[in-house]
UniProtKB/TrEMBL annotation:
InterPro entries hit by this protein: HAD-like_hydrolase_sf, HAD-like_sf, HAD-SF_hydro_IA, HAD_sf, PGP-like_dom2, PGPase_prok
Enzyme Commission number(s): 3.1.3.18
Family membership noted in the UniProt record: Belongs to the HAD-like hydrolase superfamily. CbbY/CbbZ/Gph/YieH family.
Keyword Lyase: no
Cofactor: Mg(2+)
Keyword set, alphabetical order: Carbohydrate metabolism, Hydrolase, Magnesium, Metal-binding
Species this protein is from: Leptothrix discophora
Molecular function as annotated in GO: phosphoglycolate phosphatase activity
Name used for this protein in its record: phosphoglycolate phosphatase
Pathway membership, UniProt: Organic acid metabolism; glycolate biosynthesis; glycolate from 2-phosphoglycolate: step 1/1
Catalytically driven reaction(s): 2-phosphoglycolate + H2O = glycolate + phosphate
Gene3D superfamilies, sorted: HAD superfamily/HAD-like (3.40.50.1000), Putative phosphatase, domain 2 (1.10.150.240)
Pfam families found in the cross-reference section: Hydrolase (PF00702)
PANTHER family: PHOSPHOGLYCOLATE PHOSPHATASE
Length: 237
């Protein structure tokens, strides 16, 4: 007799690039910051490729790239001032143009209706994450939000998804985490959770296939369809 397929008891989702397409407003905030320091705008793709470890990390990496190419920019692009400016510009825009990916709300809803708790685990700061989840209406379909400043560590540290699992009342190996980036897959593997992915996100500008996800879904709707089919199978047996 064949083994029944592994089925999660809870599912967590990454935010940027997984539940919500935030790249446009992040790039707009970054370019508004650069303009304030008299630095020319960068292409959206260059900024998008830096999303994944939080806003501060994004800006510091972008500045390192810019300063490498043009050391003289150091005179006017100071890290503390640039980070403070980005915080202001992003706070003005967060949730304004970001859109939930197709199927985000219905997927969360369907999972919960089937008795599978849902969470959002992001490296974004909590205040920004909450604003986005409220603006997109996803917050009401989530049992848990863990942001980049909720715990002492952030993804991919093993404690993050272990803590998510504990708060959702399941063992880490009963959790599936769905993400758009290598960081998410690593966070899942480090915690002993399933490393699932969707292809529509950012992942440093590289296809997520290169990071060998345990399971790659075409879209968010396919995640719910998969879990519900497994549960139906299990319930019917
Ligand atoms: O804000 C970021 O850079 C990353 O956020 P994410 O963990 O939701 O992808
Ligand atoms: Mg992401």
């Amino acid at each position: 007799m064949s083994q029944p397929e592994w089925m999660p008891d809870a599912v967590t989702f990454d935010l940027d690039g997984t539940l919500v397409d935030t790249a446009g407003e992040i790039a707009a905030a970054v370019n508004a910051t650069l303009a304030e320091f008299d630095v020319e705008a960068r292409p959206q793709a260059e900024i998008t490729a830096l999303i994944g470890d939080g806003l501060r990390a994004l800006m510091l990496r972008l500045m390192a790239q810019l300063l490498l190419a043009r050391p003289s920019l150091a005179e006017r692009l100071q890290p503390d001032a640039a980070l403070a400016s980005l915080e202001r510009h992003y706070a003005l825009r967060v949730g304004a143009s970001a859109r939930a990916y197709p199927g985000a709300a219905s997927t969360l809803q369907a999972l919960r209706a089937a008795g599978v708790p849902t969470g959002c685990v992001t490296n974004k700061d909590g205040r920004h994450a909450r604003m986005l989840l409220e603006a997109t209406g996803l917050i009401e379909h989530l049992d848990l939000v863990i942001a980049g400043d909720t715990l002492p560590q952030r993804k991919p540290h093993p404690s993050v998804l272990r803590s998510a699992a504990a708060r959702l009342g399941v063992a880490p190996h009963r959790l599936a985490h769905v993400g758009d980036s290598r960081t998410d897959l690593q966070a899942a593997r480090n915690a002993g959770a399933a490393d699932w992915a969707v292809p529509h996100g950012y992942n440093g500008g590289e296809p997520i296939e290169a990071a060998a996800p345990g399971r790659l879904f075409d879209d968010l709707g396919a995640v719910a369809a998969h879990v519900l089919a497994l549960r139906g199978h299990r319930l019917a047996a």
